[in-house]
Specification:
Helix content: 40-55%
Order of helices and strands: EHEHEHEHEHEHHHHEEH
Shape: globular
Oligomer: single chain
Amino acid sequence: MVRWTASNIPSQKGRLAVVTGTGGLGYEDALALAQAGAEVVIAGRNPDKGTQAVAKIRNLLPAANARFEPLDLASLRSVGAFCERLKGQSDSLDLLINNAGVMVPPKRLETEDGFELQLGTNYLGHFALTAGLMPLLRKGRNARVVTLSSVAARSGAIQFNDLNAERDYNPMRVYSQSKLACLMFALELHHRSEAGGWGVTSIAAHPGIARTDLLHNAPGRWSATGLTRSLLWFLFQPAWQGALPTLFAATSPLAKAGAYYGPDGMAEIRGFPTEAQVPRQALDAQASERLWAVSQALTGSAF
């Protein structure tokens, strides 16, 4: 694949996009989409960060059509409220980027609904969000859902007997599980959309390793992982580059439904968009169906 960058994004005029996450990759996604002419809704739990992200975009792009909407993925109540607000604002949705996440809090934390925080925020919240917005997506024009996974998914396993890590909490193992679940969800959504004739394209992406605040936020700036992020910053590619696989999946006519995209260099850690290697465990059809059923039961969501 030729070195694809945000300058290759085709016009997004007339398209409505929702991006979860107010900083890092989410901000870069929103900026690039707004620059291409899309109407962008930045959805996140922190109003200050959200309004700052919108202000930064408008400072760079005075004509940008961007706004912030509150959304806490760690609260099914908040997810439901967001979906109802959007339905009241628009008749359709063309693009949903499931990007926001939390990474390796040292102690086990729970969402408002009692889910382990990483599983609940990274995966179950986005599962419920996608289900809630599916009526709008099905009315969208060439609608796409892009769900963010991670290189950590390679070492992930779905612990159905302890999905919420109540018996055994290991921060990185649970993060890897959540990101494997995101990848399995993206692939299963593709199969179900095709089988059901929903007309919605589902694609997965991962950013490699990017310089965002993810490793500073949950574990803390002075944790081992936080210090790695601070002191070895040169090993991490810039956030704008980490966002490219997502933007490729979201906008390129070359992006394939049901595919997985990541960086093309250094074991998919950095580089420019290309098809990524899908971990073997993500291709387990029986496990994917079971995960879907469990997710619907836990969240009370239906597609």
